[in-house]
Amino acid sequence: MNSEILKMAIPVLKPLFIIVSIWLLIRGLNYPGGGFMAGLIAGSSFVLEFLAFDKLVLTRKRRNQALIFITLGIVLVLFSALAGLFIKGHLLEGLWVNAYLPEIEFSLKLGTPLVFNIGIYFSILGFVYIVFTSMMEEWIWK
After folding, report:
1. What is residue 94's DSSP assignment?
2. DSSP 96
3. What is the pLDDT of residue 140?
4. CA 13: distance to chain centroid?
5. Which of 30, 37, 121 is nearest to 74 (CA)?
């Protein structure tokens, strides 16, 4: 696909998709959503870029980014799973830390479920990236 309209829209749509995916990632701790849905939306921003620019975005450097995303995601998921095992004795046990920010008088509650969701986010983002990179390579060769 070689659409000039899509090429002009990518600089606006890609950051918008990333912002919506981060909002879904954070919102997913208390409501439906989370890492999987947010990763799919962030991955779809890469898909739009692939569709707009064809061969120009398929470089070896960018192809290795997917492996970095997947590796980071798996490491975060394993960390969140094993932290509960080592500290409380149960696999995937939620651990929480209250971080108080005295400058703005705000208390932030962080936990391993957020780390787990971020790991899923990066894993799905890398997976979508690999799938559509390989699909674009097949389309280019045909």
Report:
1. -
2. E
3. 64
4. 16
5. 121
**Amino acid present at 139:** W
- How buried is residue 18: exposed, middle or buried, by Cβ count under 10 Å (0-12/13-18/19+)? middle
CA distances to 4, 35, 108 from 128, in Å: 24, 13, 31
- pTM value is 0.84
Q: What is the pLDDT of residues 38-93, one digit of tens each?
A: 999 999 988 888 788 766 566 656 668 889 999 999 999 999 999 988 988 888 88
Contact in structure between 80 and 115 (CB atoms under 8 Å) = yes
| Strands 106-111 and 96-101, bridge-based pairing | antiparallel
Cα 1 from Cα 43, distance rounded (Å): 18
Local structure of residue 102 (DSSP, 8 states): T
Which residue is it, tokens 């799973």?
Answer: 81
d(CA 29, CA 75): 20
User: Is residue 80 a contact partner of residue 91, using CB atoms and an 8 Å limit?
Assistant: no
The token pair that represents 129 in the structure block: 């990236």
* The pLDDT value given to residue 141: 57
Q: What is the DSSP letter of 70?
A: H
